């Protein structure tokens, strides 16, 4: 068995070492043009040349939660694309989103402004029941985020492509449920997969359906959000602000107005990072299951895009 790794911006050596320990009889190597053919590949944003040259692959493991970049490549129909189920990302995402929601709800940004100018201020406590949090996308990450928010007793709503039944969460689904979901939401958390159907879905039409004073947290993909529409809705007072972790162009260009907007918090795509040891253990387990002829979780449906 041969395993190759191809990462766009990540040193592969620690991954090669970890996989070699798990499969001492296998050939494990970082890909370079002209490398031997492999049975399995572990990738992050590989070039088309990699796919074209590695034409004997059985499985392609993606180390991130989203596979949208992979599905833009020309992939052989027989190639099995597999995403990570979790690998330590869901708890990080829950931490990030809960922090962003609570920071907005408790008005800590405003307190920061006051304390930096030496002002001892007071704000009337907000009513928690008025801050419904809508989680858009109820996959592994979205479900974990929704459950975490329940601990803080926010009303939690959920939206997904197909119906989901999660205890204590008011769920909406499909095209017919989107408007009702948005109109019931005060704080929107986007965790949808990026597909041709969901690209640009956070636009003026959809965001203006959020309750007045709404807040947007985007931790999925930058292409979900029409940035100009978000800024317009913040500036005209319909939205109170946003926390953004993902952007159309990354790193975020220095001249992008989001950097300087006083009501937008920016983080550098750090809401949930891939944890190497957990990821290697999961990939090893899946390869061994495939060798035994057993089904595995995380196989991507190219038609749906996730």
Overview of this structure, please?
The protein is 32% helix and 18% strand. With 306 residues, it is α/β, with parallel strands linked by helices. The strands form two sheets. A seven-stranded parallel beta sheet has the order 8-7-6-9-10-11-12, sandwiched between helices. α8 links the parallel β9 and β10 (214-218). α1 crosses α10 and α4 packs across α6 (140-151). The chain is elongated, with a radius of gyration of 21 Å. The two termini are 27 Å apart. The relative contact order is 0.13. The mean pLDDT is 95.
Approximate shape: elongated
The main β sheet shows up as: 7 strands, parallel
Secondary-structure-based class equals alpha/beta
Helical fraction equals: 25-40%
**Low-confidence runs:** none
Rg from C-alpha positions? 21 Å
What is the terminal-to-terminal distance? 27 Å
Order of helices and strands: EHEEHEHEHHEHEEHEHEHEEH
| Tally of helical runs | 10
What is the residue-averaged pLDDT?
95
- The count of strands amounts to 12
**Fraction in beta strands:** 15-25%
Strand order in the sheet with the most strands: 8-7-6-9-10-11-12
Brief summary of the model shown:
This protein has 306 residues and is α/β, with parallel strands linked by helices.
């Amino acid at each position: 068995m041969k395993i190759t790794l191809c990462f766009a911006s990540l040193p592969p050596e620690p991954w090669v070492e970890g996989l070699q320990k798990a499969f001492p009889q296998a050939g494990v190597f970082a890909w370079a043009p002209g490398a031997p053919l492999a049975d399995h590949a572990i990738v992050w944003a590989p070039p088309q040349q990699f796919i074209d040259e590695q034409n004997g692959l059985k499985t392609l493991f993606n180390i991130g939660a989203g596979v949208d970049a992979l599905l833009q490549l020309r992939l052989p129909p027989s190639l099995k694309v597999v995403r990570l189920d979790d690998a330590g990302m869901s708890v990080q995402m829950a931490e990030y989103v809960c922090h962003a929601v609570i920071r907005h709800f408790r008005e800590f940004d405003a307190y920061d402004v006051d304390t930096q100018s030496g002002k001892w201020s007071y704000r009337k406590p907000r009513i928690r029941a008025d801050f419904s949090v809508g989680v858009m996308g109820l996959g592994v990450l979205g479900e974990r985020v929704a459950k975490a928010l329940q601990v803080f007793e926010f009303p939690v709503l959920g939206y997904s492509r197909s119906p989901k039944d999660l205890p204590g969460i008011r769920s909406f689904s499909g095209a017919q449920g989107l408007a009702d979901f948005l109109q019931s939401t005060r704080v929107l958390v986007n965790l949808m997969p990026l597909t041709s159907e969901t690209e640009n879905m956070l636009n003026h039409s959809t965001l203006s359906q959020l309750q007045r004073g709404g807040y947007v947290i985007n931790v999925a993909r930058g292409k979900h959000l029409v940035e100009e529409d978000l800024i317009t809705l913040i500036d005209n007072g319909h939205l109170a602000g946003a926390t953004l972790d993902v952007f159309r162009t990354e790193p975020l260009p220095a001249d992008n107005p989001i950097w300087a907007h006083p009501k937008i918090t920016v983080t550098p795509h750090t809401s949930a990072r891939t944890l190497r040891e957990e990821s290697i253990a999961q990939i090893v387990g899946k390869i061994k299951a495939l060798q035994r002829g057993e089904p595995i979780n995380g196989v991507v449906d190219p038609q749906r895009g996730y």
